[in-house]
């Protein structure tokens, strides 16, 4: 993937989750805590998700062929959508099941010192991963709010990692709450409640990711700001009287398709129209470098023709 920041954030999250998963499972064995077991499964699911994002980025780099003439850029959207499905099916559903089971049949948390030590270690590691994701996202986010960045980003990796890391940190806090309350009150039901909270949290994040990545997978156009840049570039060409209509669609995070019908003067020669189209394409690519595939259809400027007649 061209966004090296996205790759860096994925690797940071993967490294943190692999170390955390091992520590959580060790703690789950010693404590019998369902919250720790749910968090261990959560970390395994996150690790798998990050591997899927890396795989999607690698496969998206393949050149176009006869079957896929526009290339494979959307592979990144597909694998991001799979991440949302995996997060829900493995992380959320397992945690909800474990939480309900533990509430119905509570057990005392044993050796809680293991749980507290692992949770503190995990919070520190996840904070490092989350900080890396924030740092790498800021240049792309600009002056947008975080909510707007997640909603409008055409590159799926950073929003996915941001939400996963946020979910991981909140999940650790929920697990810490459940284990602490179970130890203080001596009632294992609190451990189940913490586990159930983790499951609901993961389900919410998975639904948000699924909605956003589905929109990208189906085919999103350029942002209004980018479309305005393209329009200005087109109408800045001497041979283009105006833009009649325009359509855009992302073939991938860094590849945009532009199709527009442009008005030309009725007395322009074919050669002048051809040169005008070439110049218009050059101006578009200069203004919006990700505009890789451009189709321009010339038409007579009927507004002016009608006015003169």
Automatic annotation (TrEMBL):
Pfam family, one: ZT_dimer
Domain Cation efflux protein cytoplasmic: 224-294
Any GO CC annotation of this UniProt entry: membrane
Keyword Transmembrane helix annotated: yes
UniProt-annotated location(s): Membrane
NCBIfam families, A to Z: CDF
Protein name stated in the entry: Cation diffusion facilitator family transporter
